[in-house]
Every structure is written in structure tokens, then in C-alpha cells.
Amino acid sequence: MKVLLVDDKESVVLGIRKHIPWETLGVSQVDIALDGKEALLRYTNDPADLIVTDIKMPNMNGIELMEHIRARFDRAVRFVVLSGYEEFEYAKQALALGASDYVLKPVDIKEMTGIIAKLLSELRKEQERDAQRLRFQQMIRRSLPALRQQYLNEMIRFRDERQVRLRDKWDFAEIPLKPSSFALLAVAIDRFDEISHKPVEEVELSRFIVENIIGDCLSSWGTGIAFYAEWGLLAMLVNYDPAEPAKEVKEKLLKFADWCRTSVEKHSGLTVTIGISSLCPELRELPGAYREACEAIEHVYFFGNNQVVHVEDLIPFRMKRTGYPVLQEQELLTLVRRGQAESAQEAAASFFRALEGEEGRPADFRFSCIQLVTALNRLLHDLGMAEGESRPLPETWFELCNRAKLGELKEHIPVWFHHAALQVKQFVQAGSKSIIGEAKTFIEQNLLQPIGLSAVADYVGVSPNYFSGLFKRETGISFVEYVTDLKLALAKDWLEDAAIPIYEIAERLGYHDRKYFREIFKKKNGITPSEYREQRLGTSTGEE
């Protein structure tokens, strides 16, 4: 810190310089001047941080000294004025000019020391803030390219009606365009989903190449700027001449965009799809222009790529709505429900043939595909199958419908339906086996009870008719045959115990007509119960 002491009485400045502990206060240099003119010269050659000055002096008084320094130098400086009682009006004037404090003569060293310590502390804090502010300003200048891209992205995404605020940002970011009369072109790198799965170095190289080629092309237009609005989508802002007819501007933009497209393909091996907005007269209309350019890209990109389209050329498509192939959907769902996988895949292709016979926007086509897979998803849930069990891809159906191109949807959706039909078939078969398994267990546990087909069907939760057909299909025999076989197998076990009479065995198994029991046993085994016992035990009971 530097201090300048100014008084026409040398004894005053020498006394102050001698008696105040400057080193303790962090002051490295204390200069003196005997009038305002000399002080101004010293300050000009070697600026001080604090000036202690008398008010009344020859050549230039303290008030004049303050006025000159304030007017000529843009630097933080503090003033302390010295005055006598008769000069108090001058002191008030000095305070009005920005003096930090005043001290009455004769000077009290202790008081002066306290004032100087306080002012120097404040000055240090202010200088630190100024230094930090300067560092931040330098950092901002270094980061201006990134800040410019941030501002541009905000301007094309969020509408701000404060035109003055937008102009301030535009000027601060030093954007090399007029802040009016724009056209916005969106440049999408084709197949970027595939590119993005490559190593980061290759991805960034692709983006860098496209950005530089587009930048070279921009120089031929005149004024323009390109920046990445998304990872694989470059936005271009160009000025146009508002005095030119809009039709001529549109033709020039189409020609320029096609040149950009062919330049990228020629010099990089990559291809791009370019969408062009309608003319945008004002900054605040940029978000609408960006949406238009993206809509144009979406339309072309959905049906193909490596093309240029102007949003105004999409008006006919906006006026039409895509008809939904209801009959094809119903046929598809029926085939899935029946588990007919091959037929389902062909029917899905038929759905797309019917859909492509309509004209409309990509959003309409996407909605139709979402509607179709929603119906499939609902069917699978109705059948008790979770989507995750039948999903053939690592991503959900709906995510792909929202981002894929028409060609990809035509490829994937038939496969989804084929897979779903296979899963339904397997699910139904597995479900049937589970039902029959539960039924068999129930029958075995209740074999000696008077249970019938309806009771078993009710237990497993299906209708008697469905259960009867399912049981026959899964086991190869009827429900009655199966129960009879179980009972006769148990009868054989009991017949090997001579202590159990045959009539009791028949009654235990629910056959109260012993003659009927004898007939069905013989029909199944070729011999009567008593003959079976005689063969097994070697004795005859003569019960029959």
C-alpha cells in the first residue's frame, strides 16, 4: 500500500510520516507533497492508495486536488482531509466529493492511525474484489466460445419476449451476425445412433469433421454461425437480405443447404439430412424457427436420409391425417392370441403396407406404431404375460417407436409380433401343463372322495368343458379314464392284502355295485379281482 501526505506545512506531513506505525499498517511507501499541484504530479507518476491532504494550500487546494484525481483517474483511492474549525465548510465539500473522513488540526496521531487503518482495510477488500472481478472477466473472455454456444442454444430453445435482453446477450457473446433477419438450418448427421456407439474419439472426430465442412460452406453464404444444438445435430444461423423476395431467399437457402450436404458427403464419407426453417425476422422468434427446422428433418429422416427439405414444403402433409389400419391390427392380435408366429409376422408387414398407403407426418406414423404395440402390450397383459417376458430388444417398444425411422420400424415390429406369438404359444402350453399338474395332485389327494370333473375344473379355475378338452389333449386319456386308472391301481395294492375283503375294496373306491367293479377291473386287467388276488397270493377266497 502507498500513502501520499499533502500539506503546505512541511512539519505537519513530516510529523505524520514519523509518528504513525506504517509497517504495522502494511504501508510500504509514504510520499509527501507541499501543495496540491505537486501532489497531483506525484500521483500521476506513482499513484497512491490513500491521500491525506490539507484543504487550504497555495497553487492548488485539497478540494481541487480531489476533483482532478476523480476526473482523470479511474482507480480506487481513499481521501482523508485535514482541516481546522474555521474550514469546516470546506471539509463538508470534501466529503461530498468522496472523502472518506476528515481530521481536525492539530492532528491526533492515535485518531489518525485508527482512521488510516480502517480505510486501508476497506481498500484492501475492495482491491481484492476488483482483482477477483478482473480474473473472472478474463475467464469469461477465455470461455467466450462456450458461452456463445450456450447463449445460442438458449435462444433457439426458449422464447424470451425481452428483445432488449436478447440483444444484450447477443452483443456480449460477440455473435458475428446481425441480430435480425435469420434463417435457421438444422443439420443432422445420418445414422448417428450407430456412430455414437463407436469409441469417443471416433464420435468426436465425426462431429468435428461435419462442423468444419459446414463452417467452410458458411463462408460462401456470407454471415453465419454453426453450433451443436444436440450431440448429432448442428444448427446453422444465417442472415438474409430482408429486401429480397421471400421466394428468392428460399431458393438460395435450398441451393446452399444442398451444397452443404454434398460437401459433407464428398469430403468425409458421412451424410447429413438438412431441414430449413421459414424466415425469422426477430431474435425472439428463433425457437419457432428451430422447431420448424427439426420438424423438416424429422419428416425426411423418418422416410430416408441424405436429403434437404424446407419446412414450407411440408404443408400438404400437415393437412392430411394418417388412416389407421384397424382391420390389419385385429388380424394381427388374433394371430398372436392363437400363437401363430409365422402368420403374425406376415400380417405385421401387411399392416405397414396399408399404413404406407396413407400420407401424413412422421408423428402420425409413429402414433400408429405406438397404438399398434400398445394393443399388443395390452393383449399380453390380458393373457397374464408381462411385457418384459416378451420383449425381444434391450429397450422398450415405445422408446424405439418414438425415435426410429420408418425402415427400422418396418423391420422390428413384425419381429416383435412374431416373437410375441411364439411366447404366447409357449406361455399357453406352460399354463396348460401347470393346470393339469394341479388337477392331478388334487385328484390324487381326493381320490377316495366323490369328486367329479366339475369340482376339479372349479379347483384349477377353468370351465368344465375347457378342462375336459385340455385334460384329454395333455394326458391322452379322458378325465374319467384317468381317475379309473388311479382307483384300479390302488385296488391292486389292497388286493395283495388278504385281510381286506373285495367288497370292502370296491366300497372304499366308491364302487357300491360290486358287479360293476368286477367288470371294469377285468376290462382293464384281463382278469377279475379274485383271480388277481389268487395269482398274487396263491390262494382263492371264493368271494366271487
Labels describing this entry:
cytoplasm; six-stranded mixed sheet; alpha/beta; 62% helix; five-stranded parallel sheet; 544 residues; 11 strands; 11% strand
What does this protein look like?
This protein has 544 residues and is an alpha/beta fold. It contains 24 helices and eleven strands. The strands form two sheets. Strands 6, 7, 8, 9, 10 and 11 form a six-stranded mixed beta sheet that branches. Strands 2-1-3-4-5 form a five-stranded parallel beta sheet, sandwiched between helices. Helix 3 links the parallel strand 3 (50-54) and strand 4. Helix 15 runs parallel beside helix 18 (406-445). The protein starts with a strand and ends in a 7-residue tail after the last helix. Residues 387-394 have low confidence and may be disordered. Its main location: cytoplasm. It is found in: Cytoplasm.
Largest sheet: 6 strands, mixed
Cα distance spanning the termini: 132 Å
The whole-angstrom Rg is: 48 Å
Number of strands: 11
Number of helices: 24
pLDDT < 50 runs, ≥5 residues: 387-394
Structural class: alpha/beta
Helix content: 55-70%
Average predicted confidence as pLDDT: 83
Shape: elongated
Approximate strand percentage: 5-15%
Protein name: Response regulator
Keywords: Cytoplasm, DNA-binding, Phosphoprotein, Transcription, Transcription regulation, Two-component regulatory system
InterPro entries: CdaR_GGDEF (IPR041522), CheY-like_superfamily (IPR011006), Homeodomain-like_sf (IPR009057), HptR (IPR051552), HTH_AraC (IPR018060), HTH_AraC-typ_CS (IPR018062), Sig_transdc_resp-reg_receiver (IPR001789), Tscrpt_reg_AraC-type_HTH (IPR020449)
Modified residues (4-aspartylphosphate): 54
